[in-house]
Every structure is written in structure tokens, then in C-alpha cells.
Specification:
493 residues; alpha+beta; globular
Length: 493
């Protein structure tokens, strides 16, 4: 119900753009701007009506439209979206101003309502969302069926459960903002920044002891030379196939083949996006169960400068958990993972359906394991894909692990991988002592103590740059598959 409500909530924000054609006086000839606007609204309105929930639009009175200079000002009295299953979403009256910019571009300003109500399947009010905020502005590209520019923000959002007696405040959000500006710097290729931010989320559903709070969630990115027309065409093709909605699919599905052809011809461009989540807390009965100070995830690729190279960086700080089986001083407070792929054949994998003979020949529909083994892994082996672990860090107050390494996909290797890595562990002696004390009470501590003691024996003791005793482990994965740690073969242990 929540996911459905959020989808309808998002749809309502663009209602003025996607559902109603302007009303014209019979005695007047329509202007070219009104004709162009009507075509856009009629097309997107059809898309809205053909949605999976079968929504339709109702209003308390007839919508109106009037020319104001080169713009068209539209009013929508108390619009209500009705779904086939009985769920409806009711809004306050709203208005929009749309201005043709030439070609297939239209500038819009949408005056947002300040509340909406969502019903249950019995038609009874279930959820009310109230907020404050200014208009939402942007640019609609009719030829691409997308918003190239969109800016807006709302604040003081309140979620109210109307199914309760009395009504219950389910949560609040301090601010939500969205700012995107894509520009066509060369024909068909779009570039520009995107930023989304939500602050001070508090969720405490009626009848539940659990609460969730979040200080900030943001997504900031930069897109360069993105083939937006090809992307839109591919998404339209995928929307018409069952590849994402059913457990089985066939590579010879004409729609999947068509999508693969679009990908083969698509210009990859470059992207760099940073997702940040901070101040996450889960609590129950006013007792904190879990908290995370911050998570930062950075994803980037540049198919122009470095085709086949993709990077990922994950940083977690300040994790706290109420129930842990180890002393707090050994609980991780910092975790860092930085890696990048070289020669990863993503485009070749996504265009497998174009290969001759058809890759699904002789396979039953939906045999994912067979497709992976017979067609995808050979592409990875042929390209000798490399995974670079630039940094691996796990740090607690009393212990830490750091490392780096490289793995290369090799078909002739016993493990399908060859490579090497180096890890350094501090605080191992303290960890062994703590585990030895716990082993008195049984459980898994005795087995863990044996593993830690063996690891200490295999490690090479060194004094690190901070003057701490650390144990270093040089790990090698050779083609014969016999892994060695500090030149000790593991098959001898």
C-alpha cells in the first residue's frame, strides 16, 4: 500500500502535464502553441490511462485553459485519480503554466497543491500527506518524452494515518528537493548535473513499537554525453516485455533482441554519482537497536576515456548495534571498500541476444545458470576482466584490517581466477585473548579461537607506520589453484 501510494503521489505532482488537454472556445481558432500542447497532453494522458492500475482522472468541475501571451495557463479543480481496484487519490485544486520554447520543448511551472489523500480499496480515506512548498518548474521534451530540466522543493511534510481513530501522525519529512538540468551539447548526447536531497525523516507507524529516523539522504551526480534518445527507446521496449516481471524469459524474444540492438548502437558516455545516507537510526520502545553515522557510495564510469572500466567506492562510518556477540571495542566503526573493474564486457553481455547462433538455442526458457556458464563467463574470460581492490578497510577501536589486491578472470585457472592480495591485521593478540576467555562457555568460540591462533602463526609480524604490531598476509592465487599465504600452501594445512 505504501509503495502504491508513493507512486500515485509522484504521479499527482505531474498531473497538470500529463492528463488534460486545454479547453478552447468554439468560436476561436486554436493557436499553434495550443495545438502543440494538446498533442503532448493527449499522448501522455493516454500513457497515464493505460497504466497497470488502470487509473482515470476525475475533477469536481471542468478544467480550463487560457492563453497568456505565448503561454497557456491551466486550472484543474480538485482532481481525483481513480484506480480500477477502488483506490483513489484526491488533491486540492492546482494550476500550471506552460510555454512553448520552440521545437518539441515546453517550459512549465506547476503550482503544487498542499495536501492529498489516498484511500484504501474500500474507498475510505487511508493516508493524508500535507506539505508546504513553491512551484515545480522545468522543461518537458516531447520528442524524448522526458523532463530535461526539473526543479522543485517541498518542506514540512506530514504523513497522517486516517484509518486510525483518532488519526495518527505516521511521520514527518523536513525537506525534499530535486534539481536536474540536462543540456544537449551535441546531437543526441546530453550532459548535466542531478541532485536530490531529503532531510529529517521520522517514521513511526500506528500500532508499531519500531521507529525509523534519518538525518539526510542525497543523490548527487554528473552525466556526460549520455545517449538519452537511445535510453528512452530501450526503456519503452523493456516496458513491453516480461523480462523484469516474470521468472522466465527467452533471448529470442523480439523485444529483447530489439533492446539489445539499441544497446549495441548506444553511446555510453560517462556518469559519476554519489549516494549519501547519514544519521540512520532504528529504535523500538525508545531503545536504539541500530544506528549508522554515514554511508557514502560512489559509482562512476567513463566509456569514452576508459571503455569497460567501472569503479565503486563504499564508506561506512559510526555503526552501532544493540545486540552484538563481541565486545564493543571490536565492533567495526569504519568500513571502506574501493574497487574498479577493467575490461568488463558489459556491452557484450547486454548484447548477447544479437549473436549468431542465438545464445538461447538448446536451452529451456529462463535457465539463468546455463546462460551464465555458457555465454556470459566466456565473455569475461575472453576479455581477461580484472578486479582491482584498491582499498579494503575494517576498523574497530581495538583492531583493524586493511588490504588491497587484484584478481584476473582466467578460464584455464583451477579457480577461474588468478591474482594476489595483501592484508594487514592489528589487534589480533587482543582478539585471541578475548576469544579464549569466551571459549570457556563453549559455543563457537573454541572453533574461532583455533582459526585465529592459526592465522597468527601464518602471519608475518611487522611494526606498521603507526607503531602498532600488525600481522601481514601475502595471498597468492596461482593458475594451479593452490592458494598460498606467506608462501605456505593452504592444501598442506
Amino acid at each position: 500500500m505504501v509503495r502504491r501510494s508513493l507512486r500515485l503521489f509522484a504521479a499527482s505532482f505531474t498531473l497538470a502535464l500529463v492528463t488534460v488537454s486545454p479547453v478552447r472556445a468554439e468560436a476561436e481558432e486554436p493557436t499553434p502553441a495550443q495545438d502543440m500542447l494538446s498533442e503532448i497532453l493527449e499522448y501522455i494522458g493516454d500513457e497515464f490511462l493505460e497504466s497497470e492500475a488502470g487509473e482515470r482522472l476525475e475533477m469536481s468541475a471542468e478544467a480550463s485553459a487560457a492563453a497568456v501571451g505565448e503561454s497557456i495557463k491551466m486550472k484543474f479543480p480538485a482532481p481525483r485519480i481513480m484506480a480500477e481496484d477502488g483506490v483513489w487519490i484526491q488533491m486540492e485544486s492546482t494550476a500550471a503554466r506552460i510555454t512553448p520554447m520552440g521545437g518539441k520543448a515546453f517550459e512549465f511551472s506547476l503550482k503544487l497543491p498542499h495536501s492529498l489523500t489516498v484511500s484504501d480499496k474500500n474507498g475510505q480515506p487511508d493516508l493524508r500527506i500535507d506539505w508546504r512548498g513553491g512551484p515545480m518548474r522545468g522543461v518537458w521534451r516531447a520528442d524524448l518524452e522526458t523532463l530535461s530540466v526539473i526543479r522543485g522543493n517541498v518542506y514540512n511534510v506530514v504523513l497522517t494515518d486516517q484509518s486510525q481513530t483518532p488519526e495518527h501522525n505516521d511521520g514527518t519529512i523536513e525537506t525534499i528537493s530535486l534539481d536536474q538540468e540536462l543540456t544537449e551539447l551535441s546531437p543526441g548526447l546530453w550532459s548535466g548535473p542531478t541532485a536530490f536531497e531529503m532531510t529529517k525523516l521520522e517514521i513511526h507507524p500506528a500500532g508499531k513499537a519500531e521507529t525509523i529516523s534519518l538525518d539526510r539522504l542525497s543523490l548527487i551526480g554528473e552525466t556526460n554525453d549520455f545517449d538519452l534518445p537511445a535510453w528512452q527507446a530501450m526503456m519503452k521496449v523493456l516496458d513491453s516485455t516480461s523480462i523484469f516481471s516474470e521468472a522466465e524469459f527467452s533471448f529470442d524474444d523480439p523485444q529483447i533482441v530489439r533492446a539489445a540492438q539499441i544497446i549495441a548502437d548506444m553511446h555510453g558516455g560517462a556518469d559519476n554519482y554519489i549516494f549519501t545516507l547519514s544519521g540512520l537510526r532504528f529504535s523500538s520502545q525508545n531503545k536504539r537497536l541500530f544506528s549508522l553515522h554515514e554511508m557514502i557510495l560512489n559509482l562512476a564510469y567513463d566509456n569514452d576515456a576508459r571503455p569497460g572500466e567501472y569503479s565503486l567506492a563504499l564508506n561506512l562510518t559510526g555503526q552501532e548495534q544493540a545486540k552484538i556477540s563481541i565486545p564493543p571495542e571490536f565492533s567495526p566503526q569504519l568500513a571502506v571498500l574501493k574497487l574498479h573493474l577493467e575490461r568488463f564486457p558489459l556491452r557484450q553481455i547486454l548484447t548477447v541476444p544479437l549473436r549468431e547462433p542465438a545464445p538461447a538455442t538448446g536451452l529451456q526458457t529462463g535457465q539463468y545458470d546455463a546462460i551464465l556458464a555458457n555465454f556470459l563467463l566466456p565473455l569475461i574470460y575472453a576479455n581477461r576482466t580484472v578486479i582491482h581492490f584498491d582499498e579494503v578497510t575494517v576498523r574497530a577501536a581495538a583492531a583493524s584490517l586493511t588490504g588491497h589486491g587484484k584478481l584476473t578472470a582466467t578460464e584455464n585457472s583451477s579457480l577461474s581466477l588468478v591474482g594476489e592480495a595483501q592484508f594487514s591485521v592489528t589487534g589480533l593478540d587482543k582478539l585471541i585473548l578475548m576469544t579464549a576467555q569466551q571459549s570457556i562457555s563453549g559455543g563457537v568460540a573454541p572453533q574461532l579461537l583455533a582459526v585465529l591462533t592459526m592465522a597468527k602463526g601464518m602471519g608475518r609480524p611487522e611494526i606498521n607506520a603507526d607503531g602498532e604490531l600488525s600481522y601481514v598476509f601475502d595471498i597468492v592465487l596461482p593458475p594451479d589453484g593452490i592458494i598460498t599465504i606467506n608462501e605456505i600452501p593452504l592444501n598442506l594445512l
